[in-house]
Design goal:
It is built from 34 helices and 19 strands.
């Protein structure tokens, strides 16, 4: 039985020969799967092209995508060495990286090849932008083969179509510009499962024995060994794509142990399975051993001894279980002792690990923390929040909901429930009809991924491929029940190619072509809606409307602020265990919300205090110093204390603060939640003009973020605005600015100018110049100045104090005489000298930049 057409027509035409050769040699399924690949590639690369490549800037998805490109570009400068300890993040500590090396090396090596050894930055970024789209399209191949080997070709083909056009996370993470490692995770994990299922299926009906191994019966063992090696290599590649991918070994291990027990209890040989298991895990070992860092010990999220234990250790363990089964069968030991022995070994191993190697025990525990309920700020992490949280709190507890980007089960709609039905059906078939190892492996994989989605939303991009195959299984099953399975069976019969027009109409070929046409029409009708949704969702690329505003502002920072004294293109050694990196005196931090740490590193070449690794956030029950405690501080003094607590080398931990409208008008309550506050501290609901609207409470405005971004730092002593981007009233946060200011004026008797201001604002933390002098007791002394931003916007800076004991003192952050070489080249500045007023007396005074930076004193008597 074959899918190919073997009769070659009698033709002397070269073109006809090629056509008939392809017609003879290429399966109709091959044509379809290539067509599916083309559709998938078109959606992911062609449609978003204009959105990704515009204004001479490659639009990478923030946050992690830009950091991956940071690693790629640094690798090309230091090839073959990659950054493993990043000093350009998490000031003043630095941070060990957990990102796998494979994604970085693949992009870099491809760039080297295409660039003939010297790729330009433009070429490198172009390659990096294309990578997720290409790998997203490639996913259709392992999905097809998994569906084919577990069920049949029809299921594989249908599953490939579904995953190619499926909207949601699998699509959003696999389009051009989303150069994060996620799509690589899905591809290599699916590739690993594909090869492992092939290997298991290849030995299930073969009489493999130890004698074959001892007698080196290579011809018999060769196909099983080769496919097992491929399974091991792809497992290793998956772990190099994502360090925590070591957990996938646990999924496969569950199947292996279960299959060992079933085979042993049924009196079947386990030699074939232990050959596959031993070779698979042993083949993965050499790939990860080179990246294991002893300083990581047994950490699950870093390349550590745990990776050796899971690969090399597991291969020995599975070999031992196989030999145990063989020996117990030889000695006719009661079968029940085999699973009891395995359970005893497992329990003993846990006890030994708990008592003598607690780090190993803790590493295994780490995998189960995924299912622990999140609290506080952890619930606001979009990809880590459970889907139930999103359904319950999407529009209630957290007005900044992430529904649009992380829709959870809603991205699958009916297929989500169809997949659950499919898992039940497959389980029933295994239990009540026939146990098939490949189906059991597939089901364990699906159940595990489904369970993970109930804990964290991020797993839906993994689970998408399971949903595609499971739904295809149900879909084809329905066609079979309806009696339509003969359509695909026609392709499995041999057909002679007609040699004349008359023979064409009397042959079986027209019916085959008609069947192919029917399948094509059905597929397009079924999947056209999803294709339309997928097409629309990718046209805009992966960047938000604020991306280019961040790019402009941080590029300004790169070229107009002091050099931190570190080589951005260098690789720095990881400090010894228990120590932190020793930064030079010239280094400083940049305080912003943790979402923006990587863009600060990549665009500004500066060192953020917090980053998207969820590091540097601070807060919690102890209100640890960090981004959350700084931005939610209710006084300037409290905010100052946070920065000084982060400081080293006798200076504060941050020299610059970067804010955006999203922080100021959308997620300030989220920052508060990270710091242990209640959402109700920040917002309430009120009826205004007959409509119930969310209202910003005073706590919102009096926070440090509010004082900086909403009020432009008016009245603050140590913070000055040095640069702002253009306004953006058409994105989240920016669209709330005018309403927020109008509410303040209405509810709190304010006088804010209701206008759109810079979406991104950069402030500098300075000592401030002290202006002091004589003034009558009890007199209010007011200092003011008009500040002109680089966008041509004018606002007033004011500060007041009351004279005591015949003197007054004011600390101001702006210099009126302009920047000085080597310091901030600010382009937002006073339009003239300060005006000081005390009673009927008014005077002007200039302040030098050096006085602002060093805390100098200027004397102006108001008597």
């Amino acid at each position: 039985m074959t899918d190919k057409i073997d009769d070659v027509p009698d033709s002397n035409s070269r073109g006809s020969y090629i056509i008939h050769f392809l017609y003879n040699k290429i399966s109709i399924y091959t044509v379809f799967i290539l067509f599916i690949f083309g559709i998938s590639l078109y959606i992911r690369t062609v449609l978003p092209y204009d959105a990704v490549f515009r204004s001479g800037i490659v639009g990478f998805a923030a946050d992690d995508a830009v950091f991956h490109m940071r690693l790629v570009e640094n690798l090309l400068n230091n090839f073959p060495h990659r950054i493993w300890y990043e000093v350009f993040t998490l000031y003043p500590y630095g941070q060990t990286l957990h990102f796998g090396p494979l994604w970085t090396y693949m992009i870099a090596i491809t760039s080297l090849i295409l660039g003939a050894g010297s790729p330009t930055l433009e070429l490198t970024r172009t390659v990096g932008a294309y990578f997720p789209g290409i790998f997203g399209a490639l996913i259709v191949f392992p999905i097809y083969f998994i569906g084919r080997d577990v069920f049949d070709k029809r299921v594989g083909l249908l599953a490939a179509f579904m995953v190619a056009v499926m909207p949601g996370q699998i699509l959003s993470r696999s389009i051009m510009g989303f150069s994060d490692h996620h799509v690589g995770e899905v591809f290599f994990s699916a590739l690993f499962i594909m090869f492992f299922i092939m290997a298991v299926k290849s030995v299930k009906s073969k009489d493999i024995s130890l004698n074959d191994i001892q007698n080196k019966n290579w011809n018999k063992l060769k196909p099983h060994v080769i496919i097992s090696i491929f399974a091991g290599i792809t497992f290793g590649l998956y772990m190099l794509q994502w360090s925590s991918g070591v957990f996938f070994g646990g999924i496969v291990a569950i199947f292996i142990v279960l299959q060992y027990i079933i085979d042993h209890m049924r009196g079947r040989s386990v030699e074939g399975l232990f050959l596959v298991s031993f070779i698979t895990f042993l083949s993965a070992f050499p790939l990860v051993i080179f990246f294991v860092d002893p300083l990581n010990r047994f950490a699950a999220g870093r390349y550590s001894y745990l990776h050796i234990l899971i690969t090399f250790g597991s291969s020995i363990f599975f070999l031992a279980l196989g030999l145990l089964s063989i020996k117990m069968r030889e000695k006719n030991i009661d079968k029940i002792y085999y699973p009891l022995t395995i359970a005893s070994i497992y329990a003993l191993g846990l006890i030994i690990a708990k008592l003598f190697v607690p780090s190993v025990f803790s590493s295994f525990q780490t995998f189960f923390t995924i299912f622990q309920p999140h609290t506080g700020g952890g619930l606001t992490i979009a990809e880590a929040s459970p889907p139930t949280h999103q359904m319950i709190f999407g529009y209630a507890s957290y007005p900044n909901n992430f529904y649009g980007s992380y829709p959870g089960i809603f991205e699958f709609v009916s297929t989500y429930y169809i997949a659950l039905l499919a898992m039940v059906a497959i389980g029933a078939l295994l239990i009540f009809r026939k146990w098939e190892p490949e189906k059991a492996m597939f089901l364990i994989w699906c159940i595990t991924m489904f369970a993970l989605t109930t804990a964290q939303n991020r797993w839906f991009y993994y689970y998408s491929v399971n949903v595609a195959i499971l739904s295809a299984f149900i879909g084809i099953g329905i066609l079979d029940i309806a009696g339509l399975n003969d359509i695909s069976s026609r392709f499995r019969t041999q057909v002679s190619t007609p040699r004349s027009l008359q023979e064409f109409f009397t042959s079986d070929l027209p019916r085959h072509l008609l069947s192919a046409l029917v399948i094509a029409i059905v597929i397009m009708v079924v999947f056209l809606p999803n294709f339309t949704i997928a097409s629309r969702s990718t046209v805009g690329g992966t960047t938000g409307s604020d991306y280019y505003l961040w790019h402009e502002s941080l590029t300004w920072m790169r070229y107009n602020t002091p050099d931190p004294g570190l080589d951005f293109d260098a690789i720095y050694d990881r400090p010894p265990s228990g120590e932190t990196f020793q930064y030079p005196d010239s280094a400083y931090g940049v305080m912003s919300w943790w979402d923006y740490g990587h863009v600060i590193t990549y665009f500004a070449h500066r060192i953020p205090n917090a980053n998207p690794f969820q590091a540097g956030i601070g807060g919690g029950a102890n209100h640890a110093p960090g981004a959350s405690t700084f931005f939610t501080a209710q006084s300037e003094e409290a905010a100052d204390e946070v920065l000084w607590n982060l400081g080293v080398n006798n200076k504060s931990g941050s020299r610059y603060i970067v804010s955006n409208a999203y922080m100021a008008y959308a997620i300030l309550d989220v920052m508060g939640i990270w710091d242990g506050h209640n959402w109700a501290d920040y917002r309430t609901w009120a009826v205004i003009s007959g409509q119930e609207q969310p209202i910003f409470k005073q706590y919102w405005y009096t926070s440090m973020e509010g004082r900086l971004h909403i009020f432009d730092g008016d009245g603050l002593k140590h913070y000055r605005l040095v640069h702002e981007s253009q306004a953006n009233p058409n994105t989240r946060g920016g669209n709330e600015e005018k309403r927020c200011k109008a509410l303040y004026n209405m509810l709190y008797n304010g006088n804010l100018q209701v206008e759109d201001t810079g979406y991104v604002k950069i402030f500098e933390f300075v000592d401030g110049a002290t202006i002091t002098g004589k003034a009558p007791d009890g007199t209010e002394v007011k200092i003011s100045n008009s500040i002109m931003t680089n966008q041509g916007r004018l606002f007033t800076y004011t500060q007041t104090t009351t004279a005591e004991n015949g003197a007054y003192s004011l600390v101001v952050p702006y210099s009126t005489l302009g920047p000085i070489p080597g310091e901030t080249n600010f382009d937002t500045r006073p339009t003239g000298p300060y005006t000081i007023a005390a009673g009927d007396i008014s005077k002007t005074v200039d302040v030098a930049e050096q006085d602002v930076l060093d805390g100098g004193t200027v004397t102006v008597d108001m008597t």
